[in-house]
């Protein structure tokens, strides 16, 4: 429990805030006093989660269902506001430690107390499932210990924030180590999933350790799906039922009613292990010492009038833009967005000697190109896009002209949002091509959604782009959630390894976990895989020696930092390993190219000079710009041509319906086939999906083949 920060509101809804109970990526949990004077836990969701148009509906539905909970062992929702700028919900406050803390402080639980714990939690789950809910995150941290029994908490948020129509292999809700195999695989879950999680909780409480081990999330998920649980130390009287709870197949797990019957009645007098009653009592006493909630500093002044404050939610300080100002900036109504906006607007007013502003005699559709001008990738995109625009405008009998406008995203999420707003301010704009990175693309996705303009992503592959089905964004490549197709096809078609070592660099675990899950949990590689976690700051020598001693057939480096990939390559060489090694485009950099000779790299861009299928484009680029096209030029060329294809069927209201036309009209370009699953709206990764294979040779990247050609003479 921590003091409120000066930037925290004093009041949310009719609840006076007293302290911070915790904070995370989803929001802040406060200790608050209700209008009736009772203590509660109030969870305020970060405003950016509400930018998803479906969020508020999901949040409202889930909190309404959770409000029906009134059983002995659950903590129901007392109040909620799905329409607030930062949606919130309040639940009863349980002034006790979590089961996770209790296990750390006092160790494993005896058999009798385990039975009581399991009986109460099974009864809680029976009520949860009866209300039409699946908890999805039953874990020791979500079980609070009160003097009269445990309480299962955290309803109404995880599902509202995490559930979308996306059901691809990479979508996971829950906590590794306690989620079910079907959750780990990203599949639809029901009540049996919560039973599996309860089995994990009971085993952890019985032994003092997680049932599927510790370490990186990918390793825990892999063991959850493919390996047997570690039940050594679980009391014999409970081992059988716990093992059934942990069955890999949902239909083989017991129902909660059977669990209740097996575990027996709850004994309120003897349910806590020795030593814990004192801890629970001490935590409860802390609330009695809390002072009356005081106002914090908002809008530059102390909130002193409690009566007035109870009727409103505190507004942000003047230094932060208001919601209205943020929406206007993202939507393009505010044109003075600093040097980026001024510079971009100035470029719009100038003539274009290359003919990419249209002839003036036909309807003009503006295409925005957004990326970092200091990045050579942006220059390649701009040249490819300009070539496509000028070629379109030179076609006799065309129905419209295209105009290309560019803006600098500055390389940060904040500046990219402003630049997207600047582009959207042009009423003739029909689409933004996002040439930015995984840092900027998610912010541009939100800004374009707020402005109601289509957004085509060419370069970024962040899993943060996975909720395209509720935005105006379409991807022209797969995200990390779908894995690296070129690498997987090379290993499966050419190397055909019996065992692959997957070296997971945990330095950027959140970014790399989706790829590791595809390789290990979902077994998209032929043969077995062996996961090797390498902690941040840790060297690769020990891992490399294990790989060399085992004689693994291939090494898959799952990381995104060139220096770390280079260190791995050098360690493997020192260990004497000479087998095939693969990675994706994020590791490319001078350090890695110097160390990774012979490595195979999968990318989302082709080499226009070496790719035999696009000789005509390369010749046109040379004629226009006096130089060979760089990587990403051909992909930008395809993006503009795909847009023109969609515009031919869009009619008059092109800005509002262009995305839907592109979504439902597959198209073949020079680098890829643009085709989408109409249910989840994701880019389909079939044949000719725009993935390419390269080899590192003499400190340079050499084109090998397209992904769909892998296995031919060039790669054997």
From TrEMBL:
Keywords, in A-Z order: ATP-binding, Kinase, Nucleotide-binding, Serine/threonine-protein kinase, Signal, Transferase
Classification via PROSITE patterns: PROTEIN_KINASE_ATP, PROTEIN_KINASE_DOM, PROTEIN_KINASE_ST
GO molecular function annotations of the record: ATP binding; protein serine/threonine kinase activity
Gene3D superfamilies in UniProt: 3.40.50.2300, Phosphorylase Kinase, domain 1, Transferase(Phosphotransferase) domain 1
Binding site for ATP: 43
Keyword flag Oxidoreductase: no
Coiled coil, from the record: none
Domain Protein kinase: 15-263
Matches recorded under InterPro entries: Kinase-like_dom_sf, Leu-bd, Peripla_BP_I, Prot_kinase_dom, Protein_kinase_ATP_BS, Ser/Thr_kinase_AS
Similarity section: Belongs to the leucine-binding protein family.
Protein name, as recorded: Putative serine/threonine protein kinase
Source species of the chain: Streptomyces davaonensis (strain DSM 101723 / JCM 4913 / KCC S-0913 / 768)
